[in-house]
Design goal:
Elements: H1 2-62, H2 65-88, H3 95-106, H4 111-117, H5 122-197, H6 210-259, H7 268-298, E1 306-309, H8 310-320, H9 322-328, E2 331-333, E3 340-343, H10 345-362, E4 368-375, E5 380-386, H11 420-430, E6 434-437, E7 445-451
Parallel strand pairs: 2-4
Antiparallel strand pairs: 1-3, 4-5, 5-7, 6-7
InterPro entries: HATPase_C_sf, HATPase_dom, His_kinase_dom, HisK_dim/P_dom, HisK_dim/P_sf, Sensor_HK_Regulatory, Sig_transdc_His_kin-like_C
EC number: 2.7.13.3
GO molecular function: phosphorelay sensor kinase activity
Length: 452
Amino acid sequence: MGFVLVLMPLGGMIWHDSRALEHLSQLTSEEMERAVRDTRRATLLSNLAVDLERTLRRYAVLGDNRILASYQQQLTHYRELLAEHQTSIPNAPVYGQLGDLLGWLDSLQDLTRAKVESTSIRFEELDLASTELEMATRSQVDEHLLKVRLVIDELMKEIWWVSGLVAVLSLLLILLFTYLIIHPVRQIESRILSLGAGIEPDQKPVDGPAELVLLGERILWLHDKLKELEQQKYQFLRHVSHELKTPLAVLREGADLLSEQLVGPLNPDQQEICLMLEQNSRRLQTLIERLLDFNRLSQQEEFERVPVALRPLLTELCAEYRLAIESKEVKVHLPETDLVLQTDPYRLRLIVDNLFSNAVSYGAQGGQIWIRYGQGEQESWLEVANEGHTIPQDERERIFEPFEQGSIARQGLLKGSGMGLSIARESAISLGGELSLVDDAQAPVCFRLTLK
């Protein structure tokens, strides 16, 4: 419909221009034919006036009746041409004089009269009158041609005005239908972006053609299906995690009883097996807790912001990781001043715990860990930096994805699950902040948390 409406003014312009050009062509052709006929007729009248004079003088000398008959034919022809010319060129003042001269010429058919008037001065008057008629004819032709040129100029102006109006109208129609097509496309694009970001898309119908409206409805249908699958995934994770914790608790209790030798003494090989059971059960418990944390964050549960002091939290973490810190002979540097943040304690602890755990596990043997924090006018920040291998450039974003680990091997008995940094970033985003890997002049690896 848009293309048809845009083409309609163009079609109207073409029809108007063709009609104008047809009229102009017809007018020009008629005026040219008329100018040629009038000019040729005026010239022929001048020539006939000369022939009449010659024929009359021959008749006066020879007295032959055949010459008289020729003279009469010429005179009749002259009268017919003059009458026709007067119809085409009516405003010439010389017609009265020519009428008198024709009456005089008609009276010269008598031979005696012809001999007397054969040398009359009135023949010169006839030549002058014929010449004047020819000039009047040319003047009239010039006036007609001038009128034709004026008509041509008016038609050209009209064509230009119509073309300009049609161009503006077509442009407005093009802009209108472009908007009517782009607007629903932008609405669909917005819904696709909402779908990718996990945000509830706009439920209002798409404004536009029926095909795009149907596409918008399909996107809403797809959103509902993805939401349903997402709920099933979270429900599966929640059920699996809770179901695994019960038999895991029994396994850990049994391994602890064996390690404490409450059921009898163990030889060194049996003690080593019990140690393996304890270590892997702790690893399994860590994985389950990480899955529960990830599931909880993905559900976007509501939370309340309360004042949280950073220094006591960091001191508590150092105490929890004391054995790992002492075994790797790592030195931890904490800020001397405290900083209180208005945030969710659970999510903040998840972030700092994961960052500190990675710094201890991936840090260099006998290296150092720096924890810094500060507060600006619009945001607060916390950095955890450690000595160790630099993370490759192509892995700096991939390590934040779930179940992804970098190429640097984790040191220690327990292996990572690839969930720590993903949970930390999810927690930072849920708090309205950002977690990223930044360059630091003091340490090869530095993670920065920014909270607004």
